[in-house]
Amino acid sequence: MSVGYRLLLLAGLVVAAVVVVTPTFIAAPKWWPWQQPVRLGLDLQGGTHLLYQVQIEQAIDNHVERIAREIERELRDAKIGAATVERVDRSVHVKLANRDKRSEARRLLEERFANVLETRESAAPDAPDLSMALVEREVVRIRDGVVDQALNVIRNRIDEFGVVEPTLQAQGEDQIVVQLPGIQDPQRAKDLIGRTAQLEFRLIAEGPNVGTVQAPGPGVQVLPGLADGGGRTQYLVEKRTIMTGDAVTNATPMQSTSMDGMAVNFELDGRGAKLFGDATTQNVGRRLAIILDGYVQSAPQIREPITGGSGQITGRFNFKEAQDLANVLRNGALPAPLTLQEERTVGPSLGQDSIRMGTTSFVVGSALVWLFMAIYYRGGGVITDIALLLNVLFLVGAFALGGLTLTLPGIAGLVLTVGMAVDANILILERMREELRLGKTARAAIEAGYDRAWSAILDSNVTLFLSGLIMLQFGTGPVRGFAVTMLVGILTTLVTAVFATRVMYDWLVTSRRIATVSV
Question: How far apart are CA 45 and CA 183, in angstroms?
């Protein structure tokens, strides 16, 4: 490629870099082709760092509990009926209303749940009619997938919460790191992230065997809740769950029509609409408890069958509470509870101090390098200094263009990049000096300098690049931030230290017809 074309290519790269970097330093006008500034990490922008532990064992228990409710439903639909269906550790124990149907019930459950449960026999006199345990491969599947499921749910909740450029990643086997740059309400974010959002629909218990709050009857559970007239109360509800929140397809906040405050309207999928319709048809006149995370939000009376596949949750919510509840219902429940292990908050002023100190260290360090190069290598040093400026410009431009996050360790990586770029150019300049001492012409010295230095430059940068990949793969937090900057800096160094400076030298030899090289 001729010198002219290479100059045009270099000029195009510089213009493109200036375009994408400009919004980072000044407010770009609306007609500017690039509007996204460089993303700043938590340590520079301020915000909240949260470390959660996923309760995987609880996820397994929840899964067995859901299977128990499905078994109860299957037996009821098959006209077999069960007196009780209970979860005991990772097993489901079934006592039939009619023991003569034991073989029929066993065949049905082994057919429907063959992939997740295995039947166990017991000769004990008080043993249940049927006992089915969760198979080991299903336990492994839940363990392997629960953290990924939790990540997806949290990501969807945060996206609707409006946090700009959050960072979410798994750490270890059961931990999740959440970083929320620039967040102004960390407590609300924690409430939103950590909310399990287990939605259940159950009937308020009725009949002679209900018992009392102090001594509930069989198949009855005491749950706290919101009273109809306000305040708190306790409800006796059936343990049998009619439907869970996984059938909810959409939820929206709106003004409550039955009480003060906001409410949440929800819509159900086809399966949920049928379950809800059947349950309300069979229980007209009874009260239905709408339970969220073990708390009865409301217990309206079923006045008529509800077959439209929609309903409303009331609870005297304010607007933010209703908005957050609709958010978590839309995006699904967490597969397991989260335990907050660590919380760190970085204030905006501390972030600005970090930027100022990081920028100062970069400017001072870079200025000393540029001054040394200009004095020691004269004209060659000036060309190197221009290449260093381009290197920084291209690196920051790559961050803006790629949506990468610049952190405080990233600024340290930026300083390292300048040092690596100088090292590459020093190798080239020293080789040029040797060739000039041998009496070669400027063109021959330039060509030999680049040819002889290339292998050493390539080896050192490949070694650093591999080290950076290892840090990126296995490091966390600051280590990853440093690694990202170093990896991008290696690529921009090769472009500027080898390509850009060679274009400048070739232009000087071709257009200015210099007789020697000032090194």
Answer: 10
